[in-house]
Structures are given as C-alpha cells and as structure tokens.
Design goal:
InterPro entries: Trp_repress (IPR000831), Trp_repressor/repl_initiator (IPR010921), TrpR-like_sf (IPR038116), YecD_YerC (IPR013368). GO terms for molecular function: DNA-binding transcription factor activity; sequence-specific DNA binding. This is TrpR-related protein YerC/YecD. With about 100 residues, this protein is mostly helical. The protein contains six helices and no strands. Helix 3 packs antiparallel against helix 4 and helix 3 packs across helix 5.
Length: about 100
C-alpha cells in the first residue's frame, strides 16, 4: 500500500464513499467532488482495466475507450504490479452478476 496516500483526510473521504448505497447517490456525490473530466478519466481507466482483463488488444481498447496507449500501459502496470484493487472489484461485481441470474 502507498503510505503517501494514507492520511486522515483520505480516510474521511473513503468512509464517506462507503456510505453511498445506490448508483444515484454515487452520481450525486462524485459530481460534487470531482470535475466531469476527472470522473470521465476514472471511468475510462476502469473500462481499460476491464478490457485488459478480457484480453482485448491495446488497439481495440484505444478504439473503444479513446484512451491513449500511455493510459492503457499505466492501467496495465497497475493490474500487473498494483494492489489488486481492480481485480477485487471485478470479482465482487462478478459475484453480484451471478447472484442476479
């Protein structure tokens, strides 16, 4: 874990995020906290990660998401050498999708 990231302020932010219960609440909160471009960047990186895990090529990912190869490479590095945060959410969302079926 990145010790530079850990702070009381970040803890407060994460606790606030954990109180959100619906997508609508997330929209309301994140539209207040982030700029539109920041939110679009977050969502783009998440889509890139999802597509990398689906074994899509950089070209396919760039065409579908509009992400640069530099962004795709950074996300790929996070998937391979990061803290497994993306994979944690993919697994949990996969569990949610299966429980809905």
């Amino acid at each position: 874990m990145n010790n530079k990231l850990h702070s009381e302020a970040v803890d407060h932010l994460f606790r606030a995020i954990l109180t959100l219960k619906t997508e609508e609440e997330c929209y309301r909160f994140f539209e207040d906290v982030c700029t539109i471009n920041e939110l679009l960047s977050f969502s783009q990186r998440y889509e890139v990660a999802k597509m990398l895990r689906e074994k899509k090529t950089y070209l396919e990912i760039a065409e579908k998401t509009g992400a640069s190869t530099a962004t795709i490479s950074r996300v790929n590095r996070s998937l391979n050498f990061g803290n497994d945060g993306y994979d944690l959410t993919f697994a949990r969302l996969g569990d949610m999708e299966q429980s809905k079926a």
